[in-house]
Queue: 3 jobs
Job 1
Amino acid sequence: MRDNLREQVIPLLHDGFINWLAYKMAKRDYYEVLEVAKNATEADMKKAYRRLAMKYHPDRNQNNQEAEEKFKEAKEAYEVLSDPQKRAAYDQLGHAGVNPGMGQGGEGYGFGGGSFSDIFGDVFGDIFGAGRSGGGGNRAYRGADLQYNLDITLEEAVNGTEVKIRVPKMEVCGECQGSGAKPGTQPQTCPTCNGVGQVRMQQGFFSIQQTCPRCNGSGTIIATPCAKCSGSGRLQKQKTLSVKVPAGVDSGDRIRLSGEGEAGQRSGPPGDLYVQISVKPHPIFTRDDDNLLCEVPIGMITAALGGELEVPTLSGRVIVKIPAGTQTGKIFRIRNKGIKPVRGGPVGDLLCKVVLETPVNLTGKQKELLKELEKSLHSDGQSHSPQERSWVAGVKKFFEDMKF
């Protein structure tokens, strides 16, 4: 008898382990995906995700399947590691700890909130008769959590916005109020398990307890199913929701809408809806925490003589004074023209990086004028290009030291 039982149990555990191992090997380590250490802070992971999202965003990589997959991979990794509960489960059990397919009645991720021992408890409880937590029949299941990916512009992220979204989800059937039975009737107690949801088989000294094959563990059967939901108690519907996006959000931030996930089963509570924010690339600005960055091309005349430059911001235009002798790469900081953090704090700045633009398509006369200017610069005995002179001196010393 014991040998028979062993023959049943060992293949079950073996198959479960193989499935877990195959799933684990099929996915890259989330920390490796984000290119961060395992002790990375939330700020480190957010910065890493923002960099990868900007690099592989579909808007910047049209018809690039590899970039799209890397974008999705980074988003999945950040979604798990930015959530303390999911990160703890992942650190303990790897991908198996956050695999949506392994939950039951699901919270949309992980083991549905249960621990690793709970799962083995269910397995051995079915075989050896150990009672499950929460009893057998008529067990209520919480509805699954849902995720909606929302793409917004940088302007919407900075100023905040309100958007309408349509979410497909399972909702309680209005015809039978979730019972699954035809109106006017009620689910009946399962005659096979007497409402327990499990049946017990005696084999010698062993008592084997298994899920009832007739009611599948629910403890009830529906003799006359609801015509509208076919006895499931739920219907697939499209629901329109209004989402308020607060000012200052960034890629990777999530907005939780409590109770807007899928309806629970057997009068269980509904899950939640998580709106995942992704900020589209901007043609002018890039974001660095609460600061905005932009490159401003200027001509060599303006850089040499100085002048004024009109610079765009998300709230209008500002004039930046360019001092004479400005070099390419110089950064001008415009205070309080960045982003106000979503969790409070001072407004960031706008950082304008000057990029010196070399004239092109010169006429013959313009070329002669530039040659005269170059000749004049070299003949008056003054240093007009300090960086060039120091670089030339450094190269000369390098050759002397290497004895070329």
Job 2
Amino acid sequence: MPFILLTLSCIFTLAGFFSQYGWWFDLASHFRLQYLLIQILCIVLCVYQKRNKLLFVTALFALINLTLIAPYYFPVTNPPTPFLKGGSNNKMTSEPIKILLINVNSPNTNYQAVRNYIKKTAPDILALEEINERWINELTPTLQSYPNFKEVSQENNFGLGLYSRFPLQNMKVEYFASHLIPSLVGEITWDGQPVSIIFTHPMPPGTAKHFIWHNTQLERIGLLKPHLEKNILLIGDLNATSWSYSFQKLTKDLNVKDSREGFGLQTSWPSFLPYVGITIDHCLVSKNIFVVERTVGPNVGSDHLPVLIKLSLPQ
């Protein structure tokens, strides 16, 4: 059985490099961590059984996946936040702000766990996915701390709610691929600097049709780049991992970085596999924005784990 899994992991390792060509290939691109773990297990078995030729092949495929995963664990050097030089009026970076992303999962009824985590983390910007009228009603007392908000309540798992301590400016509901799937696009002013915010939740690319919808949505968001501010913040369950072609194209088109760089994979789905899941809940930021801290939160009853990010702007 381990060697059947090894064969499949090697096939899917290669298939993942062709994720732009079909939803099956795209699906294969998401499970690099799982392939690596299977291959490490088989390396141990090959050493024990002295199967040197198979050991070489297994190690080669493990190295491919390790090469894709390891960079997320390399330290990223950011200046201290805030870093004061010559007095408090000469900051190099702004005071950090906290952003919390929670895909609440529409059928989830553990409202108290979500309320408690919001109160505990006290984010400056709160992004809630899969909200409907029931969820909005249950969270209303907690959401009163956020005077600025934009909600799109839906019963189809694609409702969005963006709540902010900063005024939301020019916030619009956009439909990039389907009238069923809204996104929120607007700006905030953070420490005197304009920041474009995109909050989106594309369709999972689990069929040929949905694969097209998913990729179209991310591609059209990438086309917004000429109309956005220098500082960009994109939040959402993108239903794509960092190794997917659509994700890589989006980061290139917007010229943004993955906030996980330097913090590890931080898998967030499914919540019942917190260490060997996949990374589909994202915060992408302009390359000049400093990621001070990034953590994955506890299980709040959803199939997704919350993601908490602390960011700072250069002065």
Job 3
Amino acid sequence: MSFIEVKDLRREFRVFKHREGVWGAFRDLFQRNYRILPAVDGISFSFEKGEFVGYIGPNGAGKSTTIKMMTGILVPTSGEIVANGFRPYADRARYTKSIGVVFGQRTQLWWDIAVVESFKLLRRIYDVPEKDYRERLGFFSELLGLDEFLHSPVRKLSLGQRMRCEVAAALLHNPPIVFLDEPTIGLDLVAKDRIRGFLKDINRTFKTTILLTTHDLSDIEELCRRVIIIDKGKLLYDGTLDELRLRLGRRHMISVHLEDRAHRERFEHALDAENGITWDNLDDLTFRIRYNRERASSADIIRRIIHEVPVRDIFVEAEPIEDIIKTIYGQGKV
């Protein structure tokens, strides 16, 4: 059996359906209508120990509901979860001591006391030996740069500082499984880079199994080799990012920087719009060409451009992962 097994997982919510108008509101007082909303609709996947997996989907896709079931907060309507030998909703007291959780908009730190005092309280809650606690805190402080605000109240921290503390707090007891729900939401590039680097080190050093949900696809590209895509409660894709690009990343881009703006007409003449080639002007000398690699090859396009006009610089780019994901959401399949 895999380290984490999720089989045919379903979660339905009974939602009150309001009637319209004053008379409808009056009737609702005595007779209510409900509808069943499937938030997660029969998904299955498994993780091996030490995997770092991205779990993505649009708003309302069922990501947070899945994580709440995997952490034991919600009980599934049907299906099964086994994580590290536990059934989260049945063995919750023991299971929660073996996981770490970060919800981007919620805090597990005490608002009015110093960060280090919150860490000490968490050490006692999770029964972490003093020696292990000090070693991990020193390691985390070095990687995340916590020393400068360890003795400041949480309410005085910036969002970036607080999220670094939240991530450290979730990992102080060295859990084998960590769930991260939007851990970099609202952060600047420097704070994001700090947290990403820290998570990479933790995953590599301790073989921690990490499930990451985020709307920032640069997080996924930076951290995860494998990605699971969900929409409307259903699983759309489970595999590597590289495989996803091969299957759906058919459009590539070539950026071209000309020697002289006088060559613009000759440059456009060299391109074959009939083969689905389009281009945008980034400035007078720089163009971005988009093309379908099934209809035109980069080598042929570059050869025609270089033969026609002097070029200062030219390079090929793959289709951005954001565009590939949008295609999947639009098609509803891979």
